Structures are given as C-alpha cells and as structure tokens.
Amino acid sequence: MNALLELLRQNARLSLEVLADKLSSTPQKVAEKIARLEKEGVIRGYQTMVDPAQTTSKQVTAFIEVRLRPERGDGFDRLARRIARFEQVKSCYLTSGGFDLLVLVEGDDLMGVANFVAEQLSSLDGVVSCSTIFRLKSYKENGFFFGSDESVERLPVSP
Amino acid sequence: MKIEDKIADHLKAIPRSGIRDFFELVIGRDDVISLGVGEPDFVTPWRVREAAILSLERGETTYTSNLGLLSLRSEIAIYVEKFFHISYDGSKEVLITVGVSEALDLALRALLNPGDEVIFHEPCYVSYSPSIALAYGVPVSVATKKEDNFSLKPEDLAAAITEKTKVVMLNFPTNPTGAVASREDLEGIAKLCIENDLIVLTDEIYSELRYDGGEHLSIAALPGMRERTILLHGFSKAFAMTGFRLGYACAPEALIEAMMKIHQYGILCAPITSQMAALEALKGGEEIYQHMKGAYRERRDFLVSRLNEMGIDCHSPGGAFYVFPDISKFGLSSQEFAMQFLEAEQVAAVPGTAFGECGEGFLRCCYATGMDGLKEAMIRLERFIGTLS
User: Quick one: A30 and A8 in the same domain?
Assistant: First the structure.
C-alpha cells in the first residue's frame, strides 16, 4: 500500500504538515494526493475508534453468521447488497467456511439487535439461517488496543 | 582499618561517571522531560518478546555453549555478511556477549598488556576510557571537532600514534554526537592501522540507524582490515532490545578464542532467553526496525531545524539518535547550562563533558523520545535561552 494511505490508516487526523514531513513532501502535494484518492474512491471515509466500555453507551454489537440460498445468475451478490443496505448493518462480508455472510450489526440494546435479526434479516427471502454472536468485550479493533495497557518506566538519564 | 583503602588502586584512579552525577539530580523528579536517555523509547517489538516467552514456555532455561547458541551465531554471520559485507564463520569467529559493553571489555582485556596505549575518539561513550584503564591500558583520547562533524580525521589519529599504541577504538555512528565517518576517513584510518600494525576495535551498535540514504560502511570491510579488526555489534539500539543485554563480537578465530577464555570464566554465556529473542529479531531483520528508524529520522529533522531556528548551531547528524548542539555562545559551561536548564525548565539534557573534555560547549540531546515531548522541550529551551545573555 502506498505510504500516505498507510499513515492515514493509522491516524487520519495527522495534519498535512506532519504528513508532508513524514513523506518528505509538501503539504500542498499531500493535499492533492488525498483529494485524488478520495475522488477515485480509494479512500471511502474517515472514522473515530471509540472504546464503548469507557462511554455511557448501552450500544451492543453482534456478529451474525448468515447462510444464504444462492440465486441463479447473481450468486450471493444481490442478496448480500440488500442486507448491507440496512442501517443497523455496519459491515458485511462474504466469507468462506460454514456460512456465507458475516454481518456486523449494531443496535441500541439487545432487544434492538434481536428484533432486527428476527423480523428483518431472517425473514428475507433467500436467508436460510442466522446465528447471532454478541460481543462482550473488545481487546483490539482496527489495530487499536482497548482497555488499559501499563507502560514501562525508562531511567531518566542513561549513557 | 579504612575499608576504602582496600579498593584496588587502578579502580580508585577512575573518576565517577559524569552521567551518574547528572542522573542523580534528575531521578526522583517526575516533572522532567528527559532528553537524557541512551535507549530507544520503543518497547521491543512484540514478535521478539513473544519468541522470548515461547522459549520460556518450552523450558529453555539452560546454559548455552560459551560462544552462544550455534543457531544464533550462524544467523549473525548471515546478517553481518548481508549488512556489513564481511564474512565470518559463525562456528568460530562469532562470540555472543552480554551487550556490546561486555564484548568491549573482553576485547580490551584479551589484547592489552599493562602500559599498552589505546586510542579512541572523543566525545565518546562513557565506558571507553574506564574500560581501557580497567584492563591496565593507557587511554589516549583524540578530540574530534564540530567543523568535521565529529568524524575522526586520519591526520589527528596519526598524531596520537606512538610506539606503545596497540589498539584504535572506533564508534560510528557515534554516541553522543551522531557522527558518521566517510569512506575517505575510514580508508585513511585503515591505512594508518595497517602501517603501524594496530588492532581496531569498532563498536558499530548504531549502524542500522543511518539516515539520508547513507549506507553504513564498516572499517572491517576495507581491504586488509578484517584480519586486524574486532567488530562489535548487538541488538539494543536498532531492535530496541536494551534490557535483553545481547551483543556480539566478530573477529578472527584467535581473537575470539582469547576473548572467549575470559567470557567463559566470568560470564559463562549470555542468557538463553535473550539469545532466543535475538534469533527472532534477526528473522524479522529490517522489517522490525524500519518504522522506528523512520520515526527517529523525523524527530532528528525536527530537532535540528528547531535548534538552528532559535540560533543554536547544530549539524544534522547522519546516524544514531542524538544531536549535539553547540551552546558555547551563551557563556556557560556545559555543566552549568544543563543544570540551569533543568532547574528553570525541567528538561534534562546531558552536558557534553560527560563524554570527554572536548564535549565542553555542547549538550547531548537524545531524540528517542516522543514528538510531543520534543516539541515541548524545544519551547522550553527557547524560553530558557531568552533569559540568558
């Protein structure tokens, strides 16, 4: 992956000046590159990593293993896109293995997710089965550690 | 009985380390931004730590061969061949030690007879002169100069060579100046060593940390030098493994054999856990230290440009993770400057004199510290020098 994307994936809030320093470029050139990557759709958006355990949010996250009946001509694509359009669905992947889609769903509470699965997802024509796995705790997401990590003290002066 | 009288004379003659004095001033204060450390601010990469843990889980808690694990020595030989372009036989020309510090001590003790002179360039790492004295040698320092970017000039070395000179010690990139030596200087030094039949002890612990596209050149790689050089290297700096205490020496078999004789009775072997960790570090190679090196380069550029902007003369060093700015124009000694800066602004930078008399007028600032700390330290430095004049 190109170095600019690598840096932005780690920290999308780096200023143009800092990015330019790291890439031995100029802020102007970096801005142009970012604009181009956004326009081409290489960069799809920017988000913040939040540790929900440290907020008052009661939001729940579930990973749903969905089995589908493939359709003639389209395979899984039409149905997968249809599922992905629900706003509760945050991520949706076609996978290999014992099921076909892995769907990540967020809801305001347990009932919200349960209702979504029971009423909307599993009732879709073509969905054969759903198996719902609730997240209990996050240790790492997108490369960021969640929870506290102890840091080690260095000697303040050493040869 | 006065117990102090029982201490060996040659040890009593060695002064306390200047860095130790400074350390004691800083320790116990928690408000200090420290530019005084001599180690990476990165924790050892996880895959290396994980390899150490796995090794413990497997119950690998024994002694190893005195020379160190053969598998590690073989990997070191491969790494050295690839990185330094010098080939050594891992089975008999590589010795694994407890850090480069031990290797340096072994080499001096293996080579010196009482009264032999050892030439080294200052400002330098704090252990060189005492290590020579502890091996009953005579330390002969050659001052390097700001106008040469602290490289060792062959003509200055030539002037220090006498009938009694036996060893020349080199350290490029240099702690505390970040200096690197050009091919031309190294060739001049090599020529002198061959003409005068001298042994070279070269501490290249910072060799991976070269910037600006400069490729590291070891004096041992120059024609006629392998046979008279002991190359010292280790894992502390590039791989951020200081606490593992793992270094090595590469040299002709007879020299390794002599060093091993001391090592086997004094140390027995380097810790096996550290050796297993080092093996993993070498498997990862450049991939492991590349991002740390990138961060150091960025911080060096920041420090050098900020220092020069505020009117403090500082060259951009080609290696290691230190800058060595010239603070002589403020009319304070290095010691006074460092103390007053610490008192007034709670920033610790080590006085240049801790690394030899010719470090007078300079400060060592280590940039193996987070960017936020460096930025704040520079704001405080600017404020501090505003109060001088």
Answer: yes
